[in-house]
Amino acid sequence: MKLIASLTSPYARKVRIALLEKRLDCELIVDIPWEADTHVPDYNPLGKVPVLVADDGEVFYDSSVIVEYLDSVLSQPSLLPPPGLEAVRTRKLAALADGLCDAAVAIFLERKRPPAHQSVEWVSRQQRKIDAALATLERAADDTWLIGGRLSLADIVAGCALGYLDLRLTEIDWRARHPRLHSYFDRLMTRESFLQTMPPSS
Ligand SMILES: N[C@@H](CCC(=O)N[C@@H](CS)C(=O)NCC(=O)O)C(=O)O
């Protein structure tokens, strides 16, 4: 298998963590989709990372779909519960944390535009999503794991989303406002899979 990814993408980190948790071998191909010489659109019509190329050449994208594919390749440790309400709740929390990432990425990209083209209203709208998502995660983070008593896709996405805030939106002091989330994140960050995939600072 090959994973096409950038090292700062929280969505790609999600897949890299899943691969490490499952101890699956996978070649990492670093490709930055914003650069002119990117090959990402050759694999994903949306031009986004991560993309997984399976051993038989089939291509998978969207990070959560890739994690589901990895669960089908190697069922243990499973990152999604079997079909049922717990699986739906796991996906819901993962969707929430993905949405937090989407809003943070939107702010990061907006700030890269020339100042005269930046929209204060757009940034505020994204900021409100981040604040509300953090408050919801704070309520969910009352134990070691968000759901089901073990590591799941929800924890991986939540950890990647919080890590992305630390990388790109350092002015958001989410730890001070969300003490349970702070402790939950610190516990998560002791895991080898999270430590090995820390994003570089640029
Ligand atoms: N929902 C997608 C989001 C992927 C995504 O937005 N990746 C960003 C990097 S953080 C990207 O490749 N952006 C390039 C673009 O939007 O053209 C997933 O979970 O895989």
Automatic annotation (TrEMBL):
Signal peptide positions on this chain: none
Protein name, as recorded: Glutathione S-transferase
Residue intervals of the GST N-terminal domain: 1-78
Enzyme class name: transferase
Keywords: Transferase
Species of provenance: Chitinivorax tropicus
Transferase among keywords: yes
Cytoplasm listed as a keyword: no
GO cellular component terms, semicolon-separated: cytoplasm
GO molecular function: glutathione transferase activity
InterPro entries to which the protein is assigned, alphabetical: Glutathione-S-Trfase_C-like, Glutathione-S-Trfase_C_sf, Glutathione_S-Trfase, Glutathione_S-Trfase_N, GST_Omega/HSP26, Thioredoxin-like_sf
NCBIfam families according to UniProt: PRK10357.1 (NF007682)
Ranges of residues in domain GST C-terminal: 83-202
